[in-house]
Amino acid sequence: MKADTHHTQKFILYAAGIFATYFYFGILQEKVTRGKYVVETTDSEGKKTVVTEKFTFALILVCTQCIINYIIAKAVILIWPQNEDKTTHLYYASVSVTYLLAMVASNMALQWVPYPTQVVGKSAKPIPVLLLGVLVGKKSYALKKYLFIFIIVIGIVMFMLKENAMKGESDVSGFGVGELLLILSLVMDGLMGAIQERIRAEAKPSGLQMMLQQNGWSSIFLIIIILLSGELFQFIEFAKIFPDVYLNIFFIGVASAVGQLFLFNMVSEFGPLPLSIVTTTRKFFTVLGSVIFFGNALTGRQWMGAVLVFLGLFLDAFYGKKQPKKDIVK
Fold first, then answer.
1. What angle do CA 24, 115, 171 make, to 5 degrees?
2. CA distances from 59 to 21, 81, 106, 226, 232 (A)
3. If you ran DSSP here, which 8-state letter would residue 36 be given?
4. Is 159 in contact with 305 (CB distance < 8 Å)?
5. What is the pLDDT of residue 168?
6. In the prediction, which pLDDT does 56 show?
7. Is the pLDDT of residue 90 over 90?
8. In the chain, how long is the greatest CA-to-CA distance?
9. What's the CA gap between 101 and 193, in Å, rounded?
């Protein structure tokens, strides 16, 4: 009984850490990727010109996060040494590629779709994580698990579609580059979860070890790509005009690193599917919090979506652990 209580407390701690850090992370990310950078210049004749630009350096943004994540994971491991990690380099290289493609595609999508659209699209993350966990990760789930997750995802989508529907934004109703990038990101999320499931089953590394290796490999890949693509030099020119971007990116990296400390401990101890459910519902509660604290009215469809989310979470928590023997790695 004490072991179960301790297990539950750790799950709540990790979930709370993910909720708090990624709430702040989301605000900063939207500020950087969707905000307008404006500066006033004066020519030799004294004529003033207003320059407005957008941040388009998705590789730089993700690379900064990976490097800071790696540094923090390395520092924590030096303070609290871990057992030997027997995971093969191929596994970590593979999971890093899927992680990078998911992150970069998701960030690049913001150049074509508004932030709420990205959030709605990524809300479907548990579905590819579950399906590819079965196909690639050799995971087996009870049929009711599929039903509970489907209820949660449908509820989240119903709740969060309101903003775009009311604005009538054309890029939401259409299907273009942004939506294709979101689909690619979801597929990569699913593959990443499947590989992580195999790593957990075969080598059982700690969350910190997974965080260190995944971000280390990702940093190497990204640095090579950034240098070859010339994005680094373009970003330096951009930052000369808008130097505040350095501080914004740094804080995004710190928020990401702290969040990943909770994230990788959760995936190491509980698996990628519970993690994907936590990260997905975190987006829902972010919006729900704005309703509670700022008095934004809900439509009938949103209330129905809220009920479905809570229903799915309750059913999964209450019935999802009834058959632990089925939720195993083959």
1. 180
2. 21, 31, 11, 7, 9
3. P
4. yes
5. 46
6. 86
7. yes
8. 78
9. 13
